[in-house]
Every structure is written in structure tokens, then in C-alpha cells.
Specification:
Structural class: mainly alpha
Distance between the termini: 35 Å
Mean pLDDT: 90
Radius of gyration: 35 Å
Shape: rod-shaped
Strand content: under 5%
């Protein structure tokens, strides 16, 4: 007997590959988000340290130098916050795409299982028909010989 072959097997494989690619993109995005969050924490600490040193400094030039180092850190912080927000938006989009791809893959797998079940039933009917035909042929021979 012939083996089961799902007509949409290539589409199922392609769907699985795309889903895995999207998962890899999400993992890379999560790494970028983690990096940006850690970098923001470092910038906040740097600004807080510079502010504390500025307040603790008795020399006005030294205090002014510490205050001047705060401005670039705050500008960098604002830039990183906008990058972080952008990355989180992209992450939400990727997650929705992954959900859609997963649903497509599951529907193809479900369709494959349904077709496999139909194939098994048809194959067992064909086997049973072959057995019945052989039995009837044998019975007819016995009746003719009596």
C-alpha cells in the first residue's frame, strides 16, 4: 500500500521555518531591550553620581565641570529611552506576527492530521474489501466444487 503524503507538506515546513525565524527575531529583540535597559540604568547612575559630586564639591570650577557632565548623560538617556520605546513597539509587532504564524502552522498540522485519519480509514476499507473479495472468491470456489 502507498504511504500517506500530505499535499501541503511544503507549506507546513515553510510555515515552521518562518515561525522559527520570528522566534529568533524576538529573542534578539529581547536581548536589545535588556541591553538598553541596563545602559539606561548606568546613565542614571552616572548622572546621579555627577550631581552628588557637584553638590559635594567646594571648588566652583570642579562643581561646574560635574554639572556639565550631567547634560550629555541626560541627552543620551532621552535618546536611549526613545530607542527602547521603539524596540518595544517592534517587539509587540513581532509577537503579533508570531501568533499569526503559529495559528497558521497549527491549522496546517490539524489539516494534516485530518487527512491522515481519512487516509487510514480509506486504506483499512480497501484492505477489508480485498479480504472480503478473497473470502467470497474462496467461498464461491468451494460451492462450485460441492
Amino acid at each position: 500500500m502507498k504511504a500517506f503524503k500530505f499535499r501541503l507538506q511544503r507549506a507546513l515546513r515553510f510555515s515552521l521555518v518562518r515561525e522559527n525565524q520570528k522566534k529568533a527575531q524576538i529573542a534578539a529583540g529581547l536581548q536589545r531591550i535588556g541591553f538598553l535597559e541596563r545602559y539606561l540604568t548606568q546613565l542614571e547612575k552616572k548622572a546621579a553620581t555627577a550631581l552628588a559630586l557637584s553638590a559635594a564639591s567646594f571648588h566652583s570650577l570642579e562643581a561646574e565641570a560635574h554639572r556639565q557632565s550631567i547634560v550629555p548623560a541626560l541627552e543620551e538617556r532621552r535618546r536611549m529611552e526613545s530607542l527602547l520605546a521603539e524596540e518595544k513597539d517592534f517587539m509587540a509587532t513581532r509577537q503579533l506576527e508570531l501568533k499569526r504564524l503559529s495559528q497558521r502552522r497549527r491549522s496546517l498540522e490539524s489539516l494534516s492530521e485530518k487527512h491522515r485519519g481519512i487516509f487510514v480509514v480509506e486504506r483499512s476499507r480497501a484492505e477489508q474489501k480485498t479480504i472480503d473479495d478473497a473470502f467470497n472468491l474462496n467461498r464461491n470456489r468451494e460451492m462450485k466444487s460441492k
